[in-house]
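Schema walk-through. Below, the input block comes first and the output block second. Nothing else is stored per chain. Lengths vary across the set, and this one has 216 residues.
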Amino acid sequence: MADTPHPIRVLLVDDHQVVRRGLRTFLEVQEDIEVVGEAPDGEEGIARAEELRPDVILMDIKMPGTDGIEALRRLRALDNPARVLIVTSFTEQRSVVPALRAGAAGYVYKDIDPDALAAAIRSVHAGHVLLQPEVALALLSEEGQAPSPGRGGSLTDREREVLLHIADGRSNREIARALVLSEKTVKTHVSNILMKLDLADRTQAALWAVRHGITD
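--- output ---
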């Protein structure tokens, strides 16, 4: 791609070799994506992520030993900058919500169209959050009560606008264009939102917005 000077470095973490092989076979034909390594479980995935410093990790949830959710938590504790895209099946939806709360940038299903998978990798690498409607509904159901603004009352009108765009999965650059602001100003707003809401990253901010009725 013209606007991607270096390939997106991807790490595959899945306990099924056939899944890893299939993912690698497809991704290796993408000019802007490079598979830099594989791991059969979360424990090795963490080690490989620290060693290889990939841009994006494709992570299964259910794996022997250290599962995907625990691996996510540990990667966040290590301040590993990789964006984690959960690769799961529809029947694992209940596990997806905790994974997103642990810091995943989104999720896709294992039967995803190959071109859609490549697009998803590019999307999360660009800073987007892949928040599927059914997961948003699951989040609201878990609350067991009507959404309320809560700590969101401390946000300024502009910060709430930025939060709305974050929940829509837009990158800082896209938010800057939409609100006619500099990208630096948007980054400042995002930092303020995370600080005021006591959240770790923009993925958690997107989930918070859905949970508290900030989205459209």
